[in-house]
Amino acid sequence: MPRKPRFFLPDIPAHIVQRGHSREPVFFEDNDYRAYLGWLMEAATRNQL
């Protein structure tokens, strides 16, 4: 049975999980993780979150 579509509520934050295929690690070095956090912060600032 297919999963129900996700719904979006304006002005309500979404819970997002970052993980790899079969729960494998996504980041292998600290610099990769820090770059991701920087991009995430830029996006949050740009979208006033």
The radius of gyration over CA amounts to: 14 Å
Poorly predicted tracts of residues:
none
Largest sheet: none
What's the rounded overall pLDDT mean? 88
Counting DSSP E segments of at least 2 residues, the number of strands comes to: 0
Helical content stands at 25-40%
Percent of sequence in beta strands? under 5%
**Helical element count?**
1
Q: For the record, give the distance between the C-alpha atoms at the N and C termini, rounded to a whole number.
A: 35 Å
**How does the helix and strand content classify structurally?**
mainly alpha
Descriptive keywords:
49 residues, mainly alpha, 35% helix, 0% strand
What does this structure look like?
The chain has 49 residues and is mainly α. Helices cover 35% and strands 0% of the residues. The chain has 1 helix and no strands. The radius of gyration is 14 Å and the shape is flat. The mean pLDDT is 88.
